[in-house]
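2024-03-11 09:14:02 DEBUG pipeline.ingest accepted 1 chain
2024-03-11 09:14:02 DEBUG pipeline.ingest length=278
2024-03-11 09:14:03 DEBUG pipeline.predict start
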Amino acid sequence: KLNREDRAEVDRTFRGAFVVVIIVGLAFSIGWGVAWLSLNHPLGWIIEFAGLVSLLSARGLYDHVSAVAKGLRNSVEDGRRAVAHIVGRDPDNLDGPGVARAAIESLAENFGDGVIAPVFWYVLFGFPGLLVYKAVNTMDSMIGYRSPRYRAFGMTAARLDDVLNLIPARLAGLFIVFASAFVPTGKPMQALKVMLRDSRFHRSLNAGWPEGAMAGALGLSLAGPRHYANQTVNDPWIGDGKTDVRPKDISRALYLYFVACLINAMWVAAIAVMRFSL
């Protein structure tokens, strides 16, 4: 009702901003309440811990991408069905390498906004920070499109999500660069080079950083032209490696992702030790 197509774009922009303010306010209030319970009730930490487990998608992302590799080993159709759960593009127009590239791109991008960013904001501002970030990121996924229907209404959600991911996306890229040094056939210097050189080519202000690092680390070319339900996007390639990506490359990407998650856990643990030692 707030985003009726007969309304002026300025009106729809203000209404979209109002939605963001309300949702962020609710998320902060709930997060603050959970944090208060955790500090003031003997069993309050259980609620916060359950929220952390449910809102951090590291394992779920790994499983979804792994399912794409398993599906491709059976057939392209199985791979398409599996990748449809994690990408917004039309999988029916993807061949086998296209499905594999889409899975790796989604793995890299979601490592940034599904793993690193929630942890980053939780470390800075506790459960309220985590809940506000997840609310903004979810709104961006639902209404932050550049289509005629959502361009005005979802603009505030999309821009706020860009701001909240500025630092985490770059951290995600660096963690992938560091992780590639511990992965067989990984190329850390190439990962750094491609990340710094090609991240600006991505349509997203932030997604190009982890995707560029992933492409360079594995010797792949990602992004490029791709099909969505109503349009074809002719984006440039990120990376200068091979485009003929196979299920084994998805497995390599998952190994790299696992190591990068360990590095993320290590810096969080280091911060926790420093805080408790003060």
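2024-03-11 09:14:41 DEBUG pipeline.report The two ends are 52 Å apart (CA to CA).
2024-03-11 09:14:41 DEBUG pipeline.predict end
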